[in-house]
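Q: Could you predict the 3D structure of tRNA N6-adenosine threonylcarbamoyltransferase?
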Amino acid sequence: RVVLGIESSCDETAAALVREDRTVLAQRIASQDEVHRPYGGVVPEIAARAHAERLAPLIAATLADAGMTLADVDAVAATAGPGLIGGVMVGLVSAKALAMASDKPLIAVNHLEGHALSPRLADASLAYPYLLLLVSGGHCQVLEVQGLGRYRRLATTIDDALGEAFDKTAKILGLGYPGGPAVEKLARDGDAKKVRLPRPLLGSEEPHFSFAGLKSAVMRAKQNQGDYSDADIAASFQQAALDCVIDRTRRAMAAAGDMTALVVAGGVAANQAIRAGLEKLAAEHDLPFVAPPLALCTDNAAMIGWAGMERLMSHDFAPDPLDIAARPRWPLDPDAAPVRGAGV
Ligand code: ATP
Ligand code: MG
Ligand code: FE
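A: Sure. Here are the predicted structure tokens for tRNA N6-adenosine threonylcarbamoyltransferase:
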């Protein structure tokens, strides 16, 4: 079986064809980095318009790459949230039209479920239940991934997401947009001990995250720049963020049930320092460590197609109704207790 996956929740327009045996038959991504760079961040209306202009030809090209037509596809899966609502609607409406025209099932995918299951696309041996650190532009959570559609949130951020902290640090250092990869690159030339930065919530009982105070400290470090370079600030920031991530994830691990592996996913999972730190943490607990290849960490349609495939292959599969709505917010664990100040 083959699923067509569509992603348009932020600033990547993407389509992919994913087969049951985990082969990605074709995939295309049109990044809007150039479109949003002058604004220093994603402008929702401009993103929605760019998705609308690019998506249909991108899907056609992806099908052509694989030498397929819609008739060869078994289901159409698209991100239905959470994300920038205009962009999500562009992708979801296209998926509805394609599903209706070809009489194939529609699968409305939670973008976070796409990230959460992406490691299973890359690694067939990764079995449920696993402990997931989801670190992206909008989220920073630790979840028990108990099975398809079964998520228990153990920790979340009380203010900024980790990717957001990387992006804001990049902005403060004038590295432009998008920021994460630029901060990582600059940090390689810096000394992480040069700038003293706080580690918010380090050692606290609850496993939650906080990065707002770290970002403010980076701002002060830049404004009152002393005997250190921007590279030193980047390295010190990345080290402080890593220390927080490791300490908080370690705490969440203590609260988790028996897990098959420690897994990281989402855009920040592309960061080599974060990957290396988590690998050590997993080894401490005698757990395998799984991180998807870099291209599967940041937004892509293969992970959306794969989440759709997992749904399609499940014994109780039911297609989503063609009038299903796009959702700007859509928590993976709707039962998670609210945390003060936290987003979903
Ligand atoms: P969400 O998935 O929460 O809706 P999103 O889709 O915008 O948010 P992703 O595409 O998953 O987020 O990840 C993008 C984020 O990852 C950005 O904040 C970006 O700076 C960060 N990021 C990407 N590569 C790296 C890297 N090498 N190091 C650190 N951060 C990175
Ligand atoms: Mg992006
Ligand atoms: Fe994402």
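Q: Anything worth pointing out?
A: The chain has eleven helices and ten strands.
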